[in-house]
């Protein structure tokens, strides 16, 4: 593979864009090397600026579940753009997509659209605090809910895990209201609740973690959180920015049969354009401006162009009863194929998968939380990443990310991917 044009573009990008990228993970810091610049994408394939072709397993970190440049979605965008892209006024298509999401997703009556997953989760927390009149929140180590201050917090050294900022610019004043529990560990949650009686407004989590690699909830974890929230009058917030419309039409709520009080969306809901959203019951959403006292706003929120993309993609998903079966079958085929080879070659690894979210960890231990994910973050991942890239397979440039399969992938693509893993496996010993 030649990366001349990408290298030149990256050099130029760094003059006017911090780190040459508009989102840090794209800079390849975790795996080294120069990020590739994508020229175009179609279906399951990316073409970079040097003309190299890749089978794609990032899909813009989840949104492109149908594959890139899906004709019906592209046409919906073109058609809408010809009538104007944003008015800052209500439009019918916002009604249509809101109605559709409320139909597809359980336990919600109303939805507010915003422009990113960060905005969705940030607004959901504010709504929970306004509704419960309590200030503290619990999040989980290793879960990512976007870059708003309340979430850029790491477990403090304190025994009851008070939060500490994990980025300069986040104040200790903010950090003190975010408490950190361990994923898949109900006891760690209960300890924090009991040490902060009647102070916790909400627990927010990725119902299937996707930012430590893919980590499924262990049996009983989500139901246990629901019970703790009911017992202690705490709102349960599912951050379904990744899992929404990815693991099932109704997301993780449907898949696990556990109801959240507020659900956050992003990625797929925008069909590849910038859309986030948060949704809840009429009662909780009645607290949101302009009807209620909790303020939240956005110039481009619900803009018709992004709504057209999201509405088109969600409609296709809603009318394709076999979509998740096809996606899950492909993900299972890939997982089994890769695992059989790595096992036969004696590589130390484990894989995690829920539906079409998948990750490989170069450790023989199971990865069930952030501590075990960190143990698996070793020198093998960068080798694996670059060998795959060199052989035309594009996966996430970090062991703390998930793969996202698209319906455009064929079994031939999967076989090629498995064959590349076999070809490079000796470098993983
Ligand atoms: P955005 O603000 O990036 O749209 O969404 C934030 C967010 C919220 N919740 C979850 C569960 C998420 O995964 C994300 C964003 N995901 C990352 C991938 N790990 C986006 C990639 C990036 O940061 O460039």
SSE topology:
Layout: H1 4-16, E1 38-42, E2 45-48, E3 53-56, H2 71-81, H3 92-104, E4 110-114, H4 117-132, E5 136-140, E6 153-155, E7 163-165, H5 172-175, E8 178-181, H6 186-195, E9 200-205, H7 221-232, E10 235-239, H8 251-256, E11 262-265, E12 276-280, H9 282-285, H10 304-318, H11 323-344, E13 350-354, E14 357-361, H12 370-375, H13 380-390, E15 393-394, E16 403-404, H14 411-424
Parallel strand pairs: 3-15, 5-8, 5-9, 9-10, 10-11
Antiparallel strand pairs: 1-2, 2-3, 4-12, 6-7, 11-12, 13-14, 14-16
Helix pairs in contact: 2-10, 3-10, 6-7, 11-14
Ligand KE4 is lined by residues 23, 25, 61, 116-118, 121, 144-146, 206, 210-211, 239, 241-242, 266, 276, 401.
Please describe what this structure looks like.
With 429 residues, this protein is α/β, with parallel strands linked by helices. 37% of the residues lie in helices and 16% in strands. The chain folds into two domains: 4-69 and 322-428, Aspartate Aminotransferase, domain 1; 71-318, Type I PLP-dependent aspartate aminotransferase-like (Major domain) (Aspartate Aminotransferase, domain 2, 3-Layer(aba) Sandwich). A hairpin with a 4-residue loop joins strand 2 and strand 3 (53-56). It starts with a helix and ends in a 5-residue tail after the last helix. Residues 23, 25, 61, 116-118, 121, 144-146, 206, 210-211, 239, 241-242, 266, 276, 401 line the site of ligand KE4.
